[in-house]
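Please review this pair:
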Amino acid sequence: MSKPTIVLVHGAFADSSSWNGVVAKLQEQGYPVRAVANPLRGVESDAAYVKDVVTSVSGPVVLAGHSYGGALITRAATDTPNVRALVYIAAFQPDAGESVFELSGRYPGAKLGPETTDVLEHDGEPELSIKPADFAEVFAADVPAATAAVMAVTQRPVAQQALAAPFEGTPAWSKLPSWTLVANHDNAIPAAAQEFMAERASSTVRRIDASHAVAVSQPEVVAEVILAAAANVE
């Protein structure tokens, strides 16, 4: 039986290269992998792009998202019948009416906020990035300093409305099996918020002492969680 394709969706303040270490581990196990270039413009439009990527894949898909990418897979998988499992890597698992901003602020501990973000007006709309001086602490505290410094200056800004808009529709985690990796030392999405969302979704949970950038700092563990979901599909 052929292996499912694993489609990876990065979150805000990052790009597809954040999955590089994970991709290598998955490919070593013989899995076809796609890493989506997330537009970071809005949940509905970004999820539609993810859906287009998924529907272009022949055969079953395991859909994995990091951070804001979790909101996108939750939306995209509602309309993509070839998605068989969801994987949330330090990610949002929203329900109807919830926004990324609201979920990240529901529990104490988040260091991502107005004091650690820069705002750029683009086409009349604000987009956000993490201040380079704060990037390591907020996003990548357990990543080598030199790597975190590069990540800080190559980060992808996100449209503010993408993080503020309420989630619409039925979440895919209510219908599909899901796996969640909780990053215990996450300063962007508090671990308590990740635990709440995972429990609500009845996810299979693994926990690790890592920062928000767990796919960069601990790619082996991230790959193991994704492989556990993929094994359930085969």
About this structure: The first strand starts at residue 5 and ends at 9. The chain is about 40% helix and 20% strand. The two ends are 7 Å apart (CA to CA). The CA atoms of residues 45 and 150 lie 28 Å apart.
